[in-house]
Every structure is written in structure tokens, then in C-alpha cells.
Amino acid sequence: MRERESDLESLIKQTLHENVDRIPAPVPSGEGWDRLFQELKRHRAERSMQRWKQGAAVAAAVLALVVGLAVFAVPGKVGAAGQKVIHIFKEKIGESLRITSIFNDDDATPANPDTVNPDGRLTRGPRTVTLEEAEALTPYDLKVPEYLPEGMELAEVKIKEMSGATVEVRIIYRGLPGELQIQETNMVIETMEAGNSRKEDIHEVSINGVAGMMITKNNATRLQYNKDGITFVLMILGDQPIDEIIKVGESIR
Amino acid sequence: MNIGKILGKINPTEERLFRLLYEKHYPQCYRIALSIVKNRELAQDVVQDTFIKVLDSLHQIRDMEKFDSWLAVVATSKAIDILRKRRNMVFMGDTETIMPYVSEQGAEYKTPDILAEDNELKKELFEIIQRLKPAYRGVVYMRYYCDMTYGQIAQLLGIKEGTVKSRINRALGLIRRKLSNKRTYHNVPKLVQKRVGGQDA
């Protein structure tokens, strides 16, 4: 039986070779080659792109893992490094980089045009000025902090003149620890935008004897209080101790 | 700048080499494809798929002398792939009938009736193989035309080695049965048995 099976297999082998190798085949055409060549290039491009994407995905996963481990191991240092990266990005691409934080709703939009209010008065859109110009344009005594977190420097001053004599000034400090914004306006704001903050993120604080509210969220802190008819909103973006923003607030005299 | 063009770039030397290989091996590839898919258009598709695979992976081949057998393996595998993908399609009257070859090999050593019987047997055998289900036809080609081991076939098809063995055994069983229906296999001339015998599965 086994012998017969072997015979059959050998016979199949011989039959296939004899028959297949003698099937008439057309001569390969130039057109066929061109089509194949185009397809080959497309295939190769797709494969390279796929490999590149796979490589990028693996790299991103490794990076995420490393960052995750680093955050877990040395949260402070990683936070500072992250802020450094953010700072570099902000320096390079400026306003186009928008960071999701509790500050977004306060962010001045430079592209805002001047608008005419229903009462006919003009609201001038936010514009960048010098600190001296801002001091000259505000109908109130514009205050600057005497204390700044280490590494922070004055970066920008923006002014927005609203209807009536309401003027809002935003003083922006930037540095390796992150960003500090101080917003001063002669419109008393009694409420504070809390977004979807959790209860435990909201704190009542005292700034030079004045009651204020503070929200800490997403690596950012916002402090708001009213003093002498002026609303102060301080915002720190970056890994800074909560005390820092209070110290800045208390140094605004 | 089109990134696809950059990524898909093939340098002129490569292109010349690819074209030479294509022109030289096209007939072999086409024959294998046609004998399995039995349709000229599908055979052309198989040829294209085969050369894309082969030329794109050319750097992986260490011994160019094995290019022929590698091409045969890839062509067989691509042909089976195409049949598998299109098994639900019905080809209206375009199935190629491949005429069995009548061998004159060894004619000088055989009597005319033995030669005639030998040729008749091969003709019937080739027709039977051609009519096997694609799954069986594929493994039969891989095993007996490409000389692949069970393990190699299993790896290529992504199935278990046992499945390959079982498919081949079933295919052999079918071939034997159909051959027996046409003739008494036991009556295969002794000379043919002796000439082709002695090789184990």
C-alpha cells in the first residue's frame, strides 16, 4: 500500500512538472511591466508608510510609558521639565498654542476687533501695550506684584477698553516655572468661573485681609478677589506650590 | 512634495534588475498561475501579485539560484489566495481547459502500448488534479510541484501542519479513487510503477 502511495505521489510530481512547464505563456509586454512597476512603487510606499506609522506608534507608547513612570517617580522635576517644553513651544508658536486649563475662558483674543455697543460707545479689542502705556490708559491705579515666583519675567501687557470707563488690563509674566497672569479690571466681579471644578479644588483664602476664592485644577491655579473696587484675577499655569499665588497676591499693594 | 513618491522610490539599478527578473521568469509564473486558477485574467492578476511580493522582498533572498523555486511557491500561494477570495464568484464560460501534455520521454525504452498507457495515465491524472477543489489543488501543487515540506506549506498558508497532511491525504485519496474509476490503478504498468516508485510522502 505504502509503495503504491509513493508511486502515485511520484506520478503526480512528474505529471505536474510535465504539464505545467509546457503550458504556452505569452511574452511579457512592456505595458504589463509598466503597470507592475507602478503597482510595485505604490505598494512599497504604502509599506514604508505603514512601517513609519508603526514605528511612531511604538515610539509614542514608549515615550508615554517613560513619562508616566517619571511622573510617578519624580513628579516635581517632570512637571518643571514639562513647563519648560510648553514655554519653548509658546515662545516658538506664540498664541497658536492653546493649553486646556481653567484659563481658557479668560484668554484674551487678539483677533477680537473693536466693536460698537448698542449704546453707541466703543469697546476696543484687546491690544498689546507697554506697562507704562497701560498705567497711563487705566482710570485706576494699576498695581504690579512686588513678588514673583523665581524665573518669571514680564512678557506682555494687554489692555481692553470696554464700554464706559471700564478697562481690563492683563499683565503676563513668563518663565521656566510656567506662566503668571494678573488681570485687573475696575468692574467688580462678584462671581468666579469655576467650570466643572470639583468641590475639593475650590478654596476660600484671605489676601491681605480680603476674602478671595482659589481654584486649583489641571496644573493651574486661579485666584480671584476684589479690593477697592478693583477685581484681581491671578492665574498661574505650571507646577507651582499653591502658596506662591497667594504670595504674589499679597505682594500686590 | 508627494511623500508616497519618496517612500516608493526604486533606483534605476533596482528597476533594471527587476525588469530582467520579470521578463525571464514571467512565463514560469504565468504557467503556474494559469494551471491553478484556470483563467487567463486571474492568472495575470496572480502574476502581478507574485512579482510585487517577490521583487519587494528580493533583498531577503540569499541564494539567487533558489529564485525559481521561491517564485513558484509565491505564485502557487497567490493563486490559491485569489481562488479563496473569489470562490463565491462564478466565471461564465471563461475557465481555461489546459490540455494535458503527452510525454514522449523515454519513448525509446518503452513499447508503444506502454508509452500510450503511460501518457493516458498522466493525462487522466492531470485532469483529475485540475478538477480538485482549490484547497486540495493548492496543497498538491505546493507539495508535488514546488517540493515544499508539510511544515513550509503550513507556514505559508497559516494553518497547522496536521491540516496540511490531512488535506494532502484526502487529495491523494480522491485522486486514487477517481483514477480507479477510470481504470484499475492496480493495472498501472509495472514499468511505470518502477520508474516513478520509491519516493515516500
Structural notes for this entry:
The complex is a heterodimer of chains A (253) and B (201). Chain A has 253 residues and is α+β, with helices and mostly antiparallel strands. Chain A has helices at residues 2-20, 30-73, 75-93, 131-137, 242-250; strands at residues 115-116, 122-129, 153-161, 167-175, 178-185, 202-207, 210-217, 220-227, 230-237. A 9-stranded antiparallel sheet of chain A has the order 1-2-3-4-5-9-8-7-6. The longest helix of chain A is centred in the first third of the chain and has 44 residues, at 30-73. The termini of chain A are far apart. Chain B is mainly alpha-helical and 201 residues long. Helix content of chain B is 67%, strand content 0%. Chain B has helices at residues 3-7, 12-37, 40-56, 67-85, 112-131, 134-144, 150-157, 161-182, 190-196. The longest helix of chain B is centred in the N-terminal third of the chain and has 26 residues, at 12-37. Chains A and B meet through helix 1 and helix 2 of A and helix 1, helix 2, helix 3, helix 5 and helix 6 of B.
Point out poorly predicted stretches of chain A.
94-111
The averaged pLDDT of chain B comes out at 75
Helix content of chain B: 55-70%
Largest interface: A-B, 42 and 55 residues
Taking the alpha carbons of the first and last residues of chain B, their distance comes to 56 Å
Task: Summarize the SSE layout with pairings.
The complex is a heterodimer of chains A (253) and B (201).
Chain A: H1 2-20, H2 30-73, H3 75-93, E1 115-116, E2 122-129, H4 131-137, E3 153-161, E4 167-175, E5 178-185, E6 202-207, E7 210-217, E8 220-227, E9 230-237, H5 242-250
Antiparallel strand pairs in A: 1-2, 2-3, 3-4, 4-5, 5-9, 6-7, 7-8, 8-9
Chain B: H1 3-7, H2 12-37, H3 40-56, H4 67-85, H5 112-131, H6 134-144, H7 150-157, H8 161-182, H9 190-196
Which short descriptors sum up this protein?
heterodimer, A: 253 residues, alpha+beta, nine-stranded antiparallel β-sheet, 9 strands, elongated, B: 201 residues, mainly alpha, 9 helices, 67% helix, globular, disordered C terminus
